[in-house]
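Human: I hope this is not a bother. Would you mind checking the protein record under this note? Thank you for your patience.
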Amino acid sequence: MKKIKPPVEPFRIKTVERIKITSRKEREEILKRAGFNVFNIPAEKVFIDLLTDSGTSAMSDNQWAGLMVGDESYAGAKNFFHLQETVRNIFCFKHVIPTHQGRAAERILFETLLKKGDSVPSNIHFDTTRANIEVRGAQAVDLVIDEAYDPDSEHPFKGNMDVDKLKKFIEKKGRERIPLVMLTITNNSGGGQPVSVKNIKEVSQVCKKYRIPLFFDACRFAENAYFVKKRENGYEKRSVLEIAQEIFSYGQGATMSAKKDALVNIGGFVALDDDLLAEKLKNQLIISEGFPTYGGLAGRDLEAIARGLEEVLEEDYLEYRINQVAYLARLLDEAGIPIFKPVGGHAVYLLADRFLPHIPRHQYPGWALTVALYREAGIRAVEIGGVMFAKKDRKTGREVFPKLELVRLAIPRRVYTSAHLDYVAEAIIGIYKNRDKIRGLRIVRESPYLRHFTAQLEEI
């Protein structure tokens, strides 16, 4: 078998953080104390942390230098104007409203626009977006193409929204009950899959016809633009910046968690053109986040975001980033591990129901796999399946499970080397060989929203 060659990092390492592996016995005790929920495990007890790529990036020397020029003025800090200039250049929206992270951006947007009984169509909403919609009595509607639910399909843009489904939904619901349409780029809950510019343009045309604003969940916009450059005809010679600018030209606004493609540990923003809506959002921001030129962030954080947004468009970095994820995927695929295909931009997704076919959906095979990964190897991953997205049927009380039962191995940006990923692959392959020993779980305590963050479980 030909050896799989890892990508070469386009950076040098200046600072290191010590990590230490625990014993299996210690991990058993930690799991019990955590209620078999990996979110409750202290980070210092995790060897390789693939729980999320959000806020876990390693910042560059340029970004760290930016922290030293942070202007901590309450109003009008110079770093805000650098951020505003950068966002306007990339996103091409007039108003830039900083927030402390992406879900805060979602909250002020939905709090302003949504009423009980409204609906927000998307390709597939992620967990915090869905919760911010549903907590207001509105409906989060997923209208992704059918290929998105086929983990074996090699469709290059499985994040695309189904335009016909969107038209039919608007006609059925009525445009007056749909305050906005939202596209997630890349589509996190559907395997980190990109959305094509062609699809974005078609969705935009539908929205314009019905006079419904189109917003982007843009936290991984650069990875999406890179996939467009590599996969969509006519974009091979366009820069990632040019592609991003075209993408956003088809919408009226965007929310962003800067903790992903802005390569920082905290922060986010809303960007839009509508003057009246921007004024309403700023009023909401002032109540709960802060003055509109800092939005709950220190000036140094605003500067790090601005510099990170510039760095993420460097194409040697993006090539490395996408290929690092693909490297782990190839190691697993060649060993026969069931994974979601094609590989996405920020994570490898294990098909937990195929990995653990002996565990029924109501015993949460994805969650069981996250427990096994930590128990056997000290690796923390996240379930994107029944615990995260199942809904209770109002009539029967039974859980209705999502179509996909996934475990996401989210790779932090500029943090782990190929040797770390080799360790992850070897651990997963070893677990797969002994998968019959893994048991399902039952939930013993849960919260009404985002239950996966705090749920307590026990093994069956």
In short: The chain has a mean pLDDT of 93. The first strand starts at residue 48 and ends at 49. The two ends are 40 Å apart (CA to CA). The first helix runs from residue 24 to 33.
